[in-house]
Amino acid sequence: MTPNDTELITLLKAGDTAGALALLAARPLAARERDASGVSPLMWSLYLRQGEVSEALRAALPELDVFEAVSTGDAARVATLLSADRSLARARSGDGFTALHFAAFFSRPELAASLLAAGADPAAVADNPMRVQPLHSAAAARSLETCRVLLESGAPPDAAQHQGWTALMSAAQHGLEPLVDLLLAHGARLDVRAGDGRTAAELATAAGHHELAARLTPPSVA
């Protein structure tokens, strides 16, 4: 176990779900312990897609914070929290994300809309080396509807995360034509280059999406 992790989080990171469930059964209060940054075991289990452990952790917690509620899709809890304190729409998790980042990453378009209505920033930059905005998170999750909600609320289509990566580049690399269409409709540029110099068209070509690459090639170099 590292100095920054609890015993339960160490088991989760190791992929030992059986050990995590056994520990939780023996010591339910372990669900409330957090790592040195303040990230909960529930959030770690969600990051790691450990569904059985996530359900056990939810059952062991008396209530969820806004990040946990958004990530698990607990709309009633989110509404209660925002009603009591709208500033939670802009609050930061221990690892530097807003609740809107989690709504995007876990494909919760309805909750993304609720957070935006409460004052969430569609262009919030994660306070960590990833430097992602919610649109990057939604594109990574391949959540077309969440991307639509964000773009219609003013999320910048060409915002760059770490290494200059944009949502259009992500969509191009994975051949997500509906998402490409949506981003282009909201003004995404074809000539933006990632930190390694590649454009969305070049990323599509490298991934074998040749027809899409042709569409994404700027006219000046077509």
What's the architecture of the largest domain in CATH terms?
Alpha Horseshoe
The termini sit apart by 54 Å
Helix percentage range:
40-55%
Number of domains: 2
CATH class categorisation of the largest domain? Mainly Alpha
**What is the element string, with H for helices and E for strands?**
HHHHHHHHHHHHHH
Q: Which fold name corresponds to the CATH topology of the largest domain?
A: Serine Threonine Protein Phosphatase 5, Tetratricopeptide repeat
Secondary-structure-derived class: mainly alpha
Q: Per DSSP, what share of the residues sits in E-state strands of 2 or more residues?
A: under 5%
Classified in CATH, the superfamily of the largest domain is Ankyrin repeat-containing domain
Q: Any idea what the radius of gyration is?
A: 19 Å
Oligomer: single chain
Shape: globular
Q: Averaging pLDDT over every residue, what do you get?
A: 96
Low-confidence runs: none
Provide a count of the helices: 14
Tally the beta strands.
0
Protein name: Ankyrin repeat domain-containing protein
Keywords: ANK repeat, Repeat
ANK repeats: 95-127, 130-162, 163-195
Organism: Eiseniibacteriota bacterium
Give the SSE map.
Layout: H1 7-13, H2 17-26, H3 41-47, H4 51-60, H5 66-72, H6 75-84, H7 99-105, H8 109-117, H9 134-140, H10 144-152, H11 167-173, H12 177-185, H13 200-206, H14 210-216
Write up this protein:
The chain has 222 residues and is mainly α. It folds into two domains: 62 residues, Serine Threonine Protein Phosphatase 5, Tetratricopeptide repeat (Alpha Horseshoe); 159 residues, Alpha Horseshoe (Serine Threonine Protein Phosphatase 5, Tetratricopeptide repeat). Helices cover 51% and strands 0% of the residues. The protein contains 14 helices and no strands. α8 packs parallel to α10. The chain is globular and about 65 Å long. It starts with 6 loop residues before the first helix and ends in a 6-residue tail after the last helix. The model has no long low-confidence stretch (mean pLDDT 96).
